[in-house]
User: Fold Deoxyribodipyrimidine photo-lyase from Paenibacillus monticola.
Amino acid sequence: MILFIHRKDLRIHNLPALDAIRSAQCSSLHVLILDPFLLRNERNLEHSGVNFLQHVARLQKQYSRLGKQLHIMYGEPAVVVNQLLLKHPIQEILYHADYTPYALKRDLELQKLADSLKVKLTSYDEATLADLQDFVDWSGRTEPYKVFTPFYRRWRTYINERFRPSYSATLEELETVELAPDLLESFLPPEEINKQLEDMRNSLEADDEYGVLMHTLDHFLSERLNGYSISHDQYAKEGTSRISHHLNAGSLSVRTIYEQLMSMDGDTETWLRQLAWRDFYIYQARLDPNFFRYENVFDQSELSTEHFQVWAEGCTGVPIIDAAMRQLNQTGWMPNRLRMITAMFLTKNLGCPFIYGERYFRLKLSDYDNVLNRGGWLWSSSLGFDASPYFRVMNPVTQSQTHDPDGTYLRRWMPELAHLSNKEIHLARPEAIVDLKSSRALAIETYGRILKTKETKKIGAFL
Ligand SMILES: Cc1cc2nc3c(=O)[nH]c(=O)nc-3n(C[C@H](O)[C@H](O)[C@H](O)COP(=O)(O)OP(=O)(O)OC[C@H]3O[C@@H](n4cnc5c(N)ncnc54)[C@H](O)[C@@H]3O)c2cc1C
Assistant:
């Protein structure tokens, strides 16, 4: 028997682990472990937790519709897996890899456990478009790419030449098994979470959830792809795909998305380049040993958290910042351009260490992803591999005038400003908590000094 642990792969199509189970021709036990650590502090009620649980509910429905077994267990992963190995004749454990520090530590525990019980443990990479291990070998570099453009050029050739087609096994072909009844009891999710999942399952309207996801993708590709290069920054028009919700939970495979994209006519490259940014951040997370520890690499003691709360509540007096934070707080969504502007405003104009904003987005973004969120915050605060230069401080007023000239977005989220003219509406209010010009000048001086404090640590070994 094979134990398959679902993680950020909440789907039943195009998964390497399903192909492996089919090839092994044996039964499989499919579990999803809700980790109390990751759901701590009522995370299940925040936008990011709600989005994740919605995908879990959708997955449960997909399994049950096919008459297959998926067991939702609640507990510390190594403890749960230990019990599973003791109660079931499991010969191999399969999962799809994740490279955050927490995931690596968790999987090391699983490896030790599997070794001690002489069970095979196999992980598969499936999150990126390019197979990163193969890409590194193929690109023949001794140092990782640190700048996006050369990475992208090589990556593009790789994708053309070596894109690995989709995985073909389907859940229908597999024989999933029941969980030992006492284990079900021992690792039952808390009442509140069970109820949340049940409500979510009941509110899923469609008979074919996967078909609905594919329809969303097809709709974007057929209706919006060609205008994307112009519209993606016009945030009032919401011209992007919002596919991040699905990519990050794994409810759609990035390979499926690529194959659909390549079947389209017109400008496919601009959007593909955005997907390459995603691969680039995941590449950095694996190859830059500082990626998850830049807060320790630079001395940021000059910065302060004084204005953090006001920023988070959207009360800074700078309309574009406050509108974007309101949208985030109320809906869990903020378009990419506004993520850049609000992050740069917090770290530069308000002089706050990036980890505070990063942590806030972790709770509030419904499409939260540990790697992409950190990548975005590193970029905005001029830290990391291919970050914005320290002397670049976006002017929020100019950004607002450029990307939302008639103030549609501002009027939507700040109705109290709706009466202002198109010219006035973008301007910082008299009560704004900082002066944009002087805070910009101060940020350039401060970050200039911070970047000189870099602790030198050698780039890590290749994969
Ligand atoms: C401070 C900050 C924090 C961020 N936090 C997250 C996060 O937690 N989760 C997340 O998915 N993205 C994050 N991003 C990246 C980006 O904002 C989102 O991926 C994008 O807004 C998702 O919208 P979409 O799916 O409509 O994108 P589209 O424009 O339709 O692009 C398609 C896909 O390409 C990838 N992509 C697009 N832009 C970027 C980018 N700048 N960097 C990396 N990948 C990109 C995403 O996977 C996205 O879903 C962050 C960016 C910043 C500046």
Remarks:
- The mean pLDDT is 94.
- The domain at 294-452 is CATH 1.10.579.10 (DNA Cyclobutane Dipyrimidine Photolyase, subunit A; domain 3).
- The first strand starts at residue 2 and ends at 6.
